[in-house]
Amino acid sequence: MDKQRINCIKCRYYYVTWDSKFPKGCKAYEFKSRNLPSLEVFRASGQPCLRHETK
User: Fold this and answer.
1) Which residues contact 23 (CB under 8 A, 6 or more apart)?
2) Geometric angle at alpha carbon 19, from 22 and 25, rounded to 5°
3) Which residues face 24 on adjacent strands?
4) Is the pTM of this model over 0.85?
């Protein structure tokens, strides 16, 4: 994944939540997490995030 690491902060779907337990969110996949959403997507599917769009 190091060659295809996706920076969620530059993605149009990334947002910061008010939930201190889950501070990072993805509007495309509609979830919040403690880690960057792209890492959670990779862990769940084994593929890099397919919805990433640069701002």
Assistant:
1) 16, 17, 32, 34
2) 50
3) 16, 33
4) no
